[in-house]
Amino acid sequence: xxxxxxxxxxxxxxxxxxxxxxxxxxxxxxxxxxxxxxxxxxxxxxxxxxxxxxxxxxxxxxxxxxxxxxxxxxxxxxxxxxxxxxxxxxxxxxxxxxxxxxxxxxxxxxxxxxxxxxxxxxxxxxxxxxxxxxxxxxxxxxxxxxxxxxxxxxxxxxxxxxxxxxxxxxxxxxxxxxxxxxxxxxxx
Length: 188
Fold this sequence. Notes:
The protein is built from one helix and 16 strands. 2% of the residues lie in helices and 55% in strands.
């Protein structure tokens, strides 16, 4: 659907050069001389590259409707992950390449978001935090600060994160999936 630059707002999807972009910021500029224009910061849905573009008032853009759906992780088979749509209960198969490095934080039955365009999944969005159990770590020794107070700990998904020295095997921790860091110990 073609839109004018006056209809641009944050969060809408645009189709530029055959790729899907999301508008993250925009600024309408009406100079004293010349025609109005809009400066936008857009993010590629698949590659997550960020661009700043300027569009003149005469230009029309192709807006696309992106739908966000809640998905539940079921299982992995080969190079594909299988998710279930929480509303329609359909099974959706996603290649591992679409999830990328975030796959190391995928837990059984974890709820994620999926971005869809024309019923085709475009991106899987992990939750910002997961709660996971530490299954392997070295014992921490009091006074051992040669590693700046952290040690490697492996969680139940197989990912290794740096955890404080006081964390023991069997403890439950909160992990930030955006950067793979320990946040806090969770009491259960």
